């Protein structure tokens, strides 16, 4: 419950001035791109005991950003609006999906689904504001999600994940006992 209150308070504090100053789609994506990782980090500080979650988030964030910046430097792709040659992959989307995956992996789908909805919206704003093409956003989402998944373990309790592939279906169950 404290996590929900924290997320709501942070959203209210950060979005209210932006809504008054500029209702631009790109600005809303920029704000949410910062809010989602900030919420994840806040949850590790105020919801958890110890610093395990904070370190997992930091490792996921740094690894995701290093991959994104390396690809941006190595791939010279112009943005659709012509504002630069660093279109591939989308850093905003990578950061957002890294945070959403961290939230989902660490705290469960109840928090993960809204976080993924926010991350998807951030990706949408990047395409609609002509900063990226869809492949840039999809690559950023994949990089962020993989980093979040690789470095994050559940905070507490039992995690159940559906698995489907090669004609087989099942559940992956993990937890701390």
UniProtKB/TrEMBL annotation:
It comes from the Bacteria. It comes from Shewanella corallii. Keywords: Signal. This is Phosphatase PAP2 family protein. InterPro entries: PAP2/HPO (IPR000326), PAP2/HPO_sf (IPR036938). Residues 1-21 form the signal peptide. Coiled coil: none annotated. Pfam families: PAP2 (PF01569). The keyword Transmembrane helix does not apply. Residues 56-152 form the Phosphatidic acid phosphatase type 2/haloperoxidase domain.
């Amino acid at each position: 419950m404290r996590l929900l209150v924290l997320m709501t308070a942070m959203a209210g504090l950060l979005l209210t001035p932006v809504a008054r100053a500029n209702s631009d789609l790109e600005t809303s994506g920029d704000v949410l791109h910062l809010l989602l990782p900030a919420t994840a980090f806040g949850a590790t500080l105020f919801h958890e005991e110890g610093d395990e979650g904070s370190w997992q988030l930091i490792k996921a964030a740094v690894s995701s950003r290093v991959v994104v910046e390396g690809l941006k430097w190595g791939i010279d792709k112009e943005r659709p609006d012509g504002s630069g040659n660093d279109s591939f992959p989308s850093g905003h989307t990578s950061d957002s999906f890294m945070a959403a995956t961290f939230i989902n992996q660490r705290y469960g789908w109840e928090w993960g689904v809204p976080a993924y909805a926010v991350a998807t919206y951030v990706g949408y704003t990047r395409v609609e504001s002509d900063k990226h093409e869809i492949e840039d956003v999809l690559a950023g989402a994949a990089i962020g999600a993989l980093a979040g998944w690789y470095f994050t373990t559940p905070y507490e309790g039992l995690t159940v994940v559906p698995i489907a592939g090669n004609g087989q279906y099942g559940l992956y169950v993990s937890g701390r006992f």
